[in-house]
Amino acid sequence: MPALAIRSTGGTTTFHEPVSAHLAAEFLTVPASTVDRCVAEVRACAEHLGVRATPEVIERVAREHLLALVNSAPPPRSPR
Question: How far apart are CA 49 and CA 9, in angstroms?
Answer without folding.
Answer: 20
